[in-house]
Specification:
By secondary structure, this protein is α+β, with helices and mostly antiparallel strands. The protein has helices spanning about 1-10, 15-40, 50-65, 85-95, 105-110, 120-140; strands spanning about 40-45, 70, 75-80, 145-150, 165-175. Strand 2 and strand 3 form a beta hairpin. The protein is elongated.
Length: about 180
């Protein structure tokens, strides 16, 4: 028994203590790296989703048995990198996400107006108008989605003939094909 204590005293030298600390540190680092590398790499499946679409996509991912993470307050969904394309195609077959994220007047909330050129402001105005019109049209019960394109000709001082604004609207109807008269 005394031999054991004597050998412990010999191992208590600073050199052996330092080697022990280095060994334990290396063991901790390698185990952390192995656990970290074993985790799947997650990639963004969809971002900027509204709550309806996010809920529908999460429900469908659960039914498909796909591992996923939700972040960004529910607006961003991530899946394993190897599954992104397959899952997008599967969800697209089922019509998910239902509505594209349409940007309206809130586009002006996101950007600083200081230093923005007139051209960028005009493009953002047209995008905002298109988005608001598409959002309003999509709110009708028989419309699944709407896409609106506006043509807003520039007003020139020296031109005699001014062209009027025009719009192109593409609608995707819900399964039922009848549109109420008050909605038309």
């Amino acid at each position: 028994m005394e031999n054991f204590f004597d050998s412990l005293k010999n191992f208590a030298s600073p050199r052996y203590i330092f080697l022990g600390i280095v060994g334990v540190s290396l063991l901790v680092i390698f185990s952390f790296l192995s656990f970290r590398l074993a985790e799947p790499v997650m990639s963004i499946l969809y971002s900027n989703l509204n709550t309806e679409d996010s809920s529908a996509v999460v429900t469908e991912l659960g039914a498909l048995g796909v591992k996923f993470e939700v972040s960004g307050g529910g607006s961003e969904i991530k899946v394993e990198s190897k599954d992104v394309l397959r899952v997008r195609m599967t969800l697209a077959e089922k019509g998910l996400p239902n509505k594209a994220n349409i940007v309206g007047y809130e586009i002006f909330d996101k950007e600083s107006l200081l230093g923005t050129s007139n051209f960028v402001m005009n493009v953002n105005l047209i995008r905002a108008l298109e988005g608001e019109l598409a959002r309003t049209i999509s709110s009708l019960s028989s419309i699944k989605s709407a896409r609106v394109h506006l043509v807003m000709p520039r007003k020139d001082i020296f031109k005699r003939q001014n062209f009027e604004a025009s719009a192109s609207v593409v609608l995707t109807l819900n399964n039922r094909l009848d549109v109420a008269k008050d909605e038309a």
